[in-house]
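Render Exo-alpha-sialidase in 3D.
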Amino acid sequence: MPAAPVDTFPWVDVTGAAVQAQSNTGYIARNDAAQVVVTLPANPTVGDVLRIKGAGLGGWKLAQNAGQTVNTGPIGGMAGASWTAHGPEQYWRAVASSADGSKLLAAASGGRLYTSTDGGLNWTARDADRPWQSVASSAAGDKLVAVASLGSLYTSSDGGESWTPCRGNAPCDAERWWSSVASSADGSKLVAALATGEIYTSTDSGSSWTQRSVDNQAWTSVTSSADGTRLAALGYPGRIFTSTDSGATWAPCSDQPLCDSFNLLNWTAVASSADGSKLVATEWNGRIYTSSDAGVHWTLCTTRPACSSDRLWMAVASSADGSRLVAAASDGRIYTSSDGGVSWTARDSNRDWSSVASSADGGRLVATIGQGIGPIYISTATTTPGTAGSISGTATDAIELQYVGDGLFTVLSHEGNPTAE
C-alpha cells in the first residue's frame, strides 16, 4: 500500500506579537494573549504562496507593505477600496451589471451603448447615438433594456449585440421622456418610468407594455426585486411609491415625516435587494435613506462622512442581500457601505459621478462620470492599498494567498471567516 503524501510546505509557530513573512511558508499564530501580526513578504515573486493559521486565542492579522493589496473576492470582500479607469471616454449617463459583474452595459449621453464581457477591461460600441438615459440588465447579462430621454425603449436578448426598438401602441407610438428602467433577474419583467408622469411594466421582456395607474409625478428612478414582484419608484420632487404585485397596484410611502404628502423631496435614485425587502434611496442636495421593510419605514443616514452634510447624490446600487451599498455624488466622492447603510466609507476622488452598478455579491463595482468626457471606473474587492490594508482572523480562521504581480496577492483558499479592511 503506497504511503500517504507528505506535506512538505514549511510551517513556523509564532508565539510572539509579530513576524515578517517569507514566501512559500506557513505561519501558525499561537499567541493566546495578543493578535499575531504577519507582514506580507516584501519582495515576492509571481507564484509565491503564503499560508496563515490561527491557533492562539489572540488570532492573527495579515499586514501589507507599501504598494501591496489583496484581492478579497474569494472571502466575500466588498469592492470600492481602489478604482481603475477603463474603456472609451464619453459623457456617461448610466451603467448596469450582470450578477457576477463580468458583463456590463454602459450608456453615453448623446452617444452609443457599450458592452463589456470581461468585467470592464474591454468595451464594444453598440447601436447608435441617442440621448440615452437609463439601462438595466438581467442577472445573466443576456437580456438588456435601455431608454432614451427623448426617444423610445430598446431591448436586447443577445447581450447587447443587437437592439430592437419598442413598437406598436403606447408607450411605443411616439418618442417620450424616459427617465429610468429596471429589470427582474431573468429579464422577463421590466418596469420603465417617464419624467412626464407615467409608469409602464412588461412581463415579456419588453415585447408589450402596460400602463400603470400611479400618482402623476416626474419619476426619476425605479427598481425591481429579482422576481419582479416588488417595485419602487421615486418622484422629483415627489414621494416614494412601492408595489408588491409587479406594478399592478402602487402604494405611497406613509412613514412620517419623510413621506408626508407636503414633504416632496428631490429623489434621484433607488436600489433594491434581491428579495425587495431592503431599499436605499438618495436625494439631490440631501441625504441617503434606507428601508429594511420594503419601504414601509425609512431611516435617515446620519453617520460621517457620507451623511455629515447634504450632497448632490446621483446614483446608488445594492448587493443582492442589501448589505453592501454604493452611492455616488455628482459633487464629490463614491461611498460604500458593508452594513446596509449604517456606516459609509469615502472612496476614490471628487468627480462628477453619474451612475453606479454592483455585482450581486458587491465584489465588483462600476461607476461613470457625467459632466465632461471621461472613462469608466472599475473596482474589484481588495483590501485598502498599502499599509492601511489588512486581513484579520480568529483562532479558527486560516487563509492561503498567492502573489500574482504588481503588488497584488489573491486569496486561493480560506477557512472560517477572515475579514478584510
